[in-house]
Design a protein that fits this description.
The complex is a heterodimer of chains A (about 190) and B (about 180). With about 190 residues, chain A is mostly helical. In chain A, about 75% of the residues lie in helices and about 0% in strands. Chain B has 2 domains: about 1-45, no CATH class; about 45-170, no CATH class. Chain B contains 9 helices and no strands. Classes of the chains: A mainly alpha (about 190), B mainly alpha (about 180).
């Protein structure tokens, strides 16, 4: 998909620049855009390293496991068909907690493991998602992140007085989106039968 | 309320360090180990970012982004979103790096503390790349009938678009 989008971006901007007579700005943008990507990586690198480092230390101490235990009562309600001690529920907890802490690198493998476990317990025909799988993927698409570090680093680079002052607004929006998506998933369960 | 966010980062750092001390984790060693991982992942997204940020910069310079924002302005106004955020709304469900590129563009043009800049940051901080999530998770277990996944996830995204400007207004008392 990204192949088409990227090609489209290049072609559209070329055509548009010719029509509006901005070819000069266009060639300047190619130079500036490429180097600003490198600049962005370097300026955000410090904060990214600091934060993944801290999170790694927390992970070492077993923070993910502790939080996952705290989350499990809520989750067993969202996944009523799964047994409390099922390995799928454990993997789901770990994945969501990793997302919450912004441990993207850890979250994806945990999520893939959760999908494997869900498949083992699924009674749906092959190639079809069951309710638990849908709920899990929906939770992931609107997953809450407590401290969106990268976004704050970006704001800092572009002159925000206090890059983190945005967090309460992010939390409000995140929680609303999450609740809406989960409610919708529950409501639609019966409409979309296998 | 906007002060609350400024506490988040230092408080989290202190809590984590205390937690590690209580759990007897060699905190600095674990930290440097993790920071190395951050370095690796930042470098691995660089090629994607170079491609996409150049693409977005070209769209902007050619005037295409402006046209797009103008065309979508009535729709954006209806939900209370500033027109400058339109490219982000389109890019966000498709590509994470792409929306980073677009967000950068918006922050550069409107300023990080402007209304549009804040709404853009809130939007990109609050939901994940929808199609990527669906493709990776379902692809891994070869499921192609995803039933109500897309409608439910898409509804969440739409709610985020409506709530984000309201939340920014509420937190920063902005009009």
């Amino acid at each position: 998909m990204l192949n088409w989008i990227w090609a489209g971006m290049i072609l559209i901007s070329f055509i548009c620049a010719i029509c509006t007579g901005r070819t000069e700005q266009l060639s300047a943008a190619i130079l500036a855009g490429a180097s600003s990507a490198v600049e962005l990586c370097i300026t955000t690198l410090g904060l990214m390293c600091f934060w993944t480092g801290l999170m790694q230390a927390a992970e070492h101490g077993g923070l993910t496991r502790l939080l996952a235990r705290a989350l499990s009562p809520i989750l067993s309600r969202l996944f009523p068909k799964l047994r409390r001690e099922s390995p799928a529920l454990g993997a789901i907890c770990m994945n969501l907690t990793a997302n919450l802490l912004g441990l993207g690198n850890a979250a994806t493998p945990l999520g893939l493991a959760a999908m494997q476990e869900l498949k083992k317990e699924s009674r749906a025909p092959d190639g079809t998602a069951d309710n638990a799988m849908v709920m899990f993927v929906v939770l992931n698409t609107s997953s809450l992140q407590l401290i969106p570090t990268f976004m704050a680093a970006l704001r800092g680079k572009y002159g925000a007085a206090q890059p983190f002052d945005i967090l309460p607004a992010v939390w409000i929006t995140s929680v609303c989106a999450l609740l809406a998506a989960v409610t919708m998933a529950k409501l639609l369960e019966r409409r979309f039968c296998g | 309320m906007d002060k609350l966010g400024t506490y988040a980062m230092p408080t989290a750092a202190v809590l984590i360090v205390l937690f590690c001390l209580v759990r007897k984790v060699p905190v600095f060693d674990a930290f440097t180990d993790g920071a190395k991982q951050g370095l690796r992942s930042a470098i691995s997204i660089l090629p994607t970012l170079v491609g996409l940020m150049t693409g977005v910069a070209m769209l902007q310079a050619s005037g295409a982004l402006e046209l797009m924002s103008k065309a979508l302005a009535p729709l954006m106004n209806a939900v209370g979103l500033p027109a400058a955020v339109a490219p982000l709304v389109l890019m966000k469900p498709v590509s994470g790096s792409g929306s980073t590129a677009v967000l950068t563009q918006i922050l550069q043009q409107c300023g990080a503390d402007s209304f549009a800049g804040r709404v853009a940051a809130v939007l990109s901080g609050s939901t994940e790349t929808l199609f990527y999530c669906i493709a990776v998770y379902y692809g891994s277990i070869k499921v192609h009938r995803t039933r109500h996944t897309l409608p439910a996830a898409f509804f969440g995204d739409c709610v985020a678009c409506v709530v984000a400007p309201l939340a920014v207004r509420f937190v920063f008392h902005m009009v």
